[in-house]
């Protein structure tokens, strides 16, 4: 992002000018004024790209000013400078100002510094713009390649979400499709932790996605929980998921909205008009190119899944309640009886426990019916590495059969285990590419009787040597997804300071090898 590229040169400028704080504001031609960088970074009032209003009119002449105020147009915050040095600049795309609070006096050397800084900003803007469009073109190609191959539609959706999240450098991404004339549901999610959020049904006009459907235009929110422009917003579920800022774009086919694609951040993030254009272009090109019959079948599958879940939940609640009542009665009879009667009561109680276990197993099969029962480790690696690296980090995958005969990459694992491995692997690779600043990311599999161990490590600097792992959303997400299928995840630091993620999954001692 431009803010990250500008952070160090802005810091050097602030220090050299003996200023307490520094802000760069910029108004592209025909666009609103916005903050593009600020220093010190940790004390910034505004987020990158947040639109603001200044009480000082732009002038091409550098000057000192008193009582300068920048006010956010998205939320009730402002930044005041009692005394500031205003250093204007302009490029081929718009104009802006560097505002230095309580800075040293203005002189010829300062003006020369600002001119150099303005040229640096223009060059950085051009480079960031070109990089984003290269990333967008690469994302188009990878989704198109998947859509025209024989992979499942769910796999195409996964690749689409990963590409969207990478493009906007978000924390999570999710896709909603209609289940009837009014409601959309989240068909696929990436990085989402909580079931209440996954299970949301979004009506027209409700929340971010409902507003995008109703207006037919992208909708963004800096702070979802406090955004009073949203009607019937799902604030509790969104707060529970830890989402702060979000952007939703409708995928339109003529006058109909066929889907809504979301990218969201767990930290305050002012998504810009350029973010809207990039995500909308990508979503419409990627999703409208899908085969119509496959998309319709995906919608029907969503409806079937919801109906199976409703029936299973209803059966579970009813049967478990009745069995629990029988169990309590049997236990009471057991305590009050002696001899054969007590033995028979104990037998009834044991049968109730066994029956409840069988009911849960049958309901699990009901929910998983019509789905693939197995996948290979090669499938897992392909899904994890499906989206090209935005950072340019090299990737490698290594398979070891361990105690299982045959080639490791062809070892089959249960579908639910494979799904959990994909989610953990995708999150680990995403963290490596977006936070480690490393050059290489490696994935390895070791298969032994009854267990498969997957490792993802990087050679970067993901964490400070004394920083605890716990509490990071990505790490908590990986732990939760592994636990759902009886697995566990361990996190270690590599010698360089990078992160090594080691996940162990139960696969059964008799896992077959595909032909």
What does this protein look like?
The chain is of the alpha+beta class and 515 residues long. The chain folds into four domains: 1-133, Beta-Lactamase (2-Layer Sandwich); 149-290, GAF domain (Beta-Lactamase, 2-Layer Sandwich), CATH 3.30.450.40; 297-367; 374-506, Histidine kinase-like ATPase, C-terminal domain (Heat Shock Protein 90, 2-Layer Sandwich), CATH 3.30.565. 43% of the residues lie in helices and 26% in strands. The chain contains twelve helices and 19 strands. The strands form four sheets. It has a six-stranded antiparallel β-sheet with strand order 2-1-6-5-4-3. Strands 9-8-7-12-11-10 form a six-stranded antiparallel β-sheet, with helices on both faces. α1 runs antiparallel to α2 (108-147), α3 (153-168) packs antiparallel against α7 and α10 (377-384) packs parallel to α11 (415-435). The chain is elongated and about 105 Å long. It starts with a helix and ends in a 7-residue tail after the last strand. Residues 403-407 have low confidence and may be disordered.
In short:
This protein has 515 residues and is an alpha+beta fold.
What attributes characterize this protein structure?
515 residues; Beta-Lactamase; 4 domains; 6-stranded antiparallel sheet; 19 strands; 26% strand
How would you write the strand order of the largest sheet? 2-1-6-5-4-3
Give a count of the beta strands, DSSP E runs of length 2 or more.
19
The second-level CATH architecture of the largest domain is 2-Layer Sandwich
Into which percent range does the helicity of residues fall? 40-55%
**Overall pLDDT, averaged?**
77
- The CATH topology of the largest domain corresponds to Beta-Lactamase
Rg over CA atoms, rounded to whole Å, is 27 Å
Unreliable residue runs: 403-407
Helical element count? 12
CATH top level of the largest domain is Alpha Beta
**CATH-defined superfamily of the largest domain:** GAF domain
Distance between the termini: 46 Å
Protein name: Histidine kinase
Domain GAF: 152-300
GO cellular component, one term: membrane
Organism: Rhodococcus koreensis
């Amino acid at each position: 992002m431009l803010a990250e590229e500008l952070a160090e040169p802005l810091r050097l400028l602030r220090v050299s000018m003996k200023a307490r704080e520094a802000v760069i504001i910029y108004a592209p031609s025909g666009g609103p004024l916005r903050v593009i960088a600020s220093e010190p970074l940790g004390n910034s009032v505004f987020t990158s790209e947040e639109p603001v209003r200044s009480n000082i009119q732009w002038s091409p002449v550098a000057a000192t000013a008193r009582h300068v105020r920048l006010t956010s147009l998205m939320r009730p915050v402002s930044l005041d400078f009692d005394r500031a040095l205003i250093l204007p600049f302009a490029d081929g795309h718009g104009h802006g100002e560097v505002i230095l609070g309580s800075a040293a006096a203005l002189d010829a050397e300062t003006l020369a510094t600002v001119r150099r800084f303005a040229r640096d900003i223009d060059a950085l803007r051009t480079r960031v713009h070109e990089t984003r469009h290269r990333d967008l073109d690469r994302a188009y190609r990878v989704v198109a390649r998947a859509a025209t191959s024989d992979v499942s539609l769910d796999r195409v959706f996964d690749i689409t979400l990963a590409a969207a999240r990478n493009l906007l450098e978000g924390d999570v991404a999710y896709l909603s499709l209609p289940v009837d004339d009014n409601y959309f549901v989240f068909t696929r999610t990436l990085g989402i932790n909580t079931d209440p959020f996954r299970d949301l049904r979004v009506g027209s006009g409700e929340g971010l996605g409902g507003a995008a459907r109703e207006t037919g235009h992208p909708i963004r929110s800096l702070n979802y929980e406090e955004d009073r422009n949203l009607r019937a917003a799902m604030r509790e579920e969104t707060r529970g998921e830890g989402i702060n800022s979000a952007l939703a774009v409708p995928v339109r086919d003529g006058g109909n909205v066929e889907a809504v694609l979301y990218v969201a951040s767990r930290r305050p993030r002012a998504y810009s008009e350029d973010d809207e254009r990039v995500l909308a272009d990508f979503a419409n090109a990627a999703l409208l190119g899908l085969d119509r019959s496959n998309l319709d079948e995906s919608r029907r599958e969503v409806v079937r899944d919801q109906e199976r879940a409703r029936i299973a939940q209803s059966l579970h609640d009813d049967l478990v309640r009745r069995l629990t009542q029988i169990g309590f009665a049997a236990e009471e009879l057991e305590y009050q009886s002696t001899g054969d009667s007590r033995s028979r009561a104990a037998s009834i109680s044991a049968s109730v426990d066994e029956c409840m276990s069988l009911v849960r197993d049958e309901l699990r099969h009901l929910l998983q019916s019509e789905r693939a029962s197995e996948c290979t480790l090669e499938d897992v690696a392909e899904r994890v590495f499906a989206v090209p690296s935005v950072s340019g980090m090299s990737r490698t995958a290594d398979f070891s059969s361990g105690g299982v005969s045959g080639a490791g990459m062809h070892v089959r694992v249960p579908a639910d285990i494979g799904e959990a491995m994909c989610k953990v692997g995708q999150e680990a690779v995403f963290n490596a590419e977006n936070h480690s600043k490393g050059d290489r990311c490696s994935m390895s599999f070791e298969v032994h009787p009854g267990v498969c161990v997957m490792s993802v490590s990087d050679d970067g600097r993901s964490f400070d040597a004394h920083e605890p792992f716990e509490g990071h959303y990505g790490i908590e997400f990986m732990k939760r997804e592994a636990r759902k299928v009886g697995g566990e995840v361990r996190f270690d630091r590599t010698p360089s300071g990078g992160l090594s993620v080691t996940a162990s999954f139960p696969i059964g001692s008799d896992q077959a090898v595909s032909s």
